[in-house]
């Protein structure tokens, strides 16, 4: 029973990244490589409300401009200017 509970917990924790879309397309030419971000960050809660992932409350232009640019600046990796994300 104990092994079963541990296995269930492991599946629950990793299910968000396993089922999340690999590449998401947003308005104005923004392409987001979810799988690459999930693998690099190793912590869904850096963007999502909980470790299981799911819809991000308040996600939109303001959220992504603040949160994404902040993370890219902190990690010194990824675009921080308009043309870096808005390719079209």
What's the topology here?
Layout: H1 2-19, E1 23-25, E2 31-33, H2 34-41, H3 61-75, H4 82-85
Antiparallel strand pairs: 1-2
Task: Work out the strand percent.
Answer: 5-15%
In the CATH scheme, the class would be Alpha Beta
Biggest β-sheet strands, sense, barrel: 2 strands, antiparallel
Spell the H/E element sequence.
HEEHHH
Residue windows where pLDDT falls under 50 for at least 5 positions: 8-19
> How many separate domains?
1
| Total helical elements | 4
Alpha-carbon distance between the two ends: 53 Å
Question: Biggest sheet: strands side by side, in what order?
Answer: 1-2
Q: Could you explain the architecture of this structure?
A:
- This protein is mainly α and 88 residues long.
- It has one domain: Cytochrome C3 (Alpha-Beta Complex), CATH 3.90.10.10.
- 51% of the residues lie in helices and 7% in strands.
- It is built from four helices and two strands, in the order αββααα.
- It has helices spanning 2-19, 34-41, 61-75, 82-85; strands spanning 23-25, 31-33.
- Strands 1-2 form a two-stranded antiparallel ribbon.
- It is globular.
């Amino acid at each position: 029973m104990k092994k079963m509970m541990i296995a269930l917990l492991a599946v629950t924790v990793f299910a968000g990244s396993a089922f999340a879309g690999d590449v998401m397309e947003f308005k104005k030419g923004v392409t987001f490589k979810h799988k690459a971000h999930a693998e690099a960050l190793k912590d869904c809660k850096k963007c999502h409300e909980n470790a299981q992932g799911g819809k991000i409350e308040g996600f939109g232009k303001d959220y992504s401009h603040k949160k994404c640019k902040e993370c890219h600046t902190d990690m010194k990796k990824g675009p921080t200017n308009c043309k870096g994300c808005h390719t079209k």
